[in-house]
Structures are given as C-alpha cells and as structure tokens.
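QA checklist item 7 of 12: single-chain prediction sanity check.
[x] sequence parsed
[x] length recorded as 169
[x] structure emitted
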Amino acid sequence: MQEKQTTNSDDFTNVFRAPRSGRLLALDLGMKHIGVAVSDELQFTVRPVAVIERRAWKKVLKQIIAFLAEFDAVGLVLGLPYNTDGTENEMSQEARRLARNFSLSVDIPVFLMDERLTSYEAKGYLTKLGLSEKEIWERVDSEAAAIILSDFLQLRNEKLKQDGHDGQD
C-alpha cells in the first residue's frame, strides 16, 4: 500500500516550520473535552474559541476541520502534556498519536507544544476574572488552548531572534 503524501513531517516540534503569518489554531487535548483557540492573522494575539466534546475520532476530525476552514488556519498546534519533571506519560503518547493522525488528515503543518501547567494557569486566570466555578469549568480548556498557542508563538519568535531572523521571510 502506498503511503499518503503529506506536507507534514514526523517532527511536530520544529517551530521553524510554522508559517509566520496567517491564523494558527491550537488544541488542548483532554480525555473528555478539547479546548480550541486561534491567533490573529499576524500572529500577535490569541483568543479562546470553543470547547468541544471528545468523542469518536471522525467526529472530532470533522469539527476541527470546520474550525480550520472557518478561520482559514495555516497551522495546527496541539498541546503535548509532560509530567512536571519533563518526562512523558500516556497522555503524551496520545497527543503524539493524534498529531500524526491530524498530519495525515489535513493539508497544513501540525505541531506539538509543551503544555505543562496550562490548565492550572488557565484556572488561575479565570479565577482572577471573578468567574464562577461553573464558568471556569466551561472555559478552562479553551483558555488552556490559548495559553498553548501563545507559548508556541513566543517560543518560535524567541528562536527566530536567537538565529538572527527578524521574523520576516
């Protein structure tokens, strides 16, 4: 059987492959819910978009493809959970599996971004806003996705500066 040609590689952590303009979509992958966030076209700001239920792969894929189309996204960033000591766990392997599945299903590059403590950070932020427990629970996954995307853009920009790029092609 012939392998499907794709624009994606198996190196989902190479931030230099990320397009430098156009919207990026980010996912915070949970066992029951997936948070979704998006950047602006210039990749300066990010915002939470939605929380979707994690069901069958085909339903999730269909919803994510709809978000990619709605925002005309040029890249997809998935949170990669690590233990606090930097080691991987079962959820890390699941995120890698999903990154591979997405890379075979969409025509834009897919990336993985360390997401340690993003849900905790998101809960703290939403608590500071004075939201109720119910409101926090409803928004924490999409807020975590926004933090993942913000961290991804910051890492990419820092690496570009280190390598002497000004962020322009």
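[x] summary fact logged: The longest strand covers residues 46-53.
[ ] second reviewer sign-off
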